């Protein structure tokens, strides 16, 4: 079978990157039309009613109150089977190598970020609903949490991820009329739940903040916020409490040292700045040589933070020389060893002709 090398179509990938990251009000009319077409194409009668929710959390709460009223889930017929059939068709058409190249040029480029975001939303839903569980005894509380997790797992498996299905939908863009309704819903709305009598569709977020690696990231408020107020807070991908972010602007070295949670303390250090912390905490250098200065910050209950201070030998336009701080392994014993490590070398192998 003819093998074709696929090069990323920047128009298609730009389109689906934008869909995956879209914020703002859904196009409700277009999304509802897509839902009805998806049901029709699956040989189903259109749902008797379509209900909108402000977030996946609100949708889950609504579905828990409705019980069996919406009827059985039809996700398998409107999403799983069409996707599996089209994947098989395209795979047979292109061959294993062609399919791999197509996926690498399309869906694979979005998969990690969309999957991580969907997983974080699921975890956030569980966290929020778990806040309302109380129990007089620990074993009763733990059983209630397990029961909640089991119930939510099934409800979340019934969801179609809308815009967060962008990765696999990108692979079929222009190749499948059968998946067009699902693509249209993804382009106009968030997650949705298809049941025999009722479909529940979510609004998209109103805010989404990510770092250069695509991780949820905001030091000044929610990293992800839905119109009903459901929010996720994160710093460079790490979930943090909302109140924790409010404290970041008033940090000082003593507060950082007193933080017992090692992960939160690392966030504090990153936000505050290692160089600033070193300067204001009275830290002393542990080694210096021709490459720079090695500093070590002892951390109670956690590994030390080791940094090498290096000065760029190339002057700035104003004649000054910029200082950089390199995070190195805690067991580093010399500045040169630390700098060598950043190049993937041992200390004895690192012999630069010129420091830059």
Task: Explain briefly what this protein structure is.
The strands form four sheets. The chain has a four-stranded antiparallel beta sheet, with helices on both faces. Strands 1-3-2 form a three-stranded mixed beta sheet, sandwiched between helices. A three-stranded antiparallel beta sheet has the order 4-5-6, with helices on one face. The protein folds into two domains: 195 residues, no CATH class; 97 residues, no CATH class.
Tell me the major beta sheet: 4 strands, antiparallel
Strand order of the largest sheet: 9-10-11-12
Portion in beta strands: 5-15%
* Helix fraction bin: 40-55%
Q: Rg, please?
A: 26 Å
User: Mean pLDDT score, rounded?
Assistant: 90
Unreliable residue stretches? none
Key terms for this structure?
356 residues; alpha+beta; 3-stranded mixed β-sheet; 13% strand; globular
Tell me what you see in this structure.
With 356 residues, the chain is of the alpha+beta class. It has two domains: 10-204, no CATH class; 253-349, no CATH class. The chain is 46% helix and 13% strand. It contains 13 helices and twelve strands. The strands form four sheets. The protein has a four-stranded antiparallel sheet with strand order 9-10-11-12, sandwiched between helices.
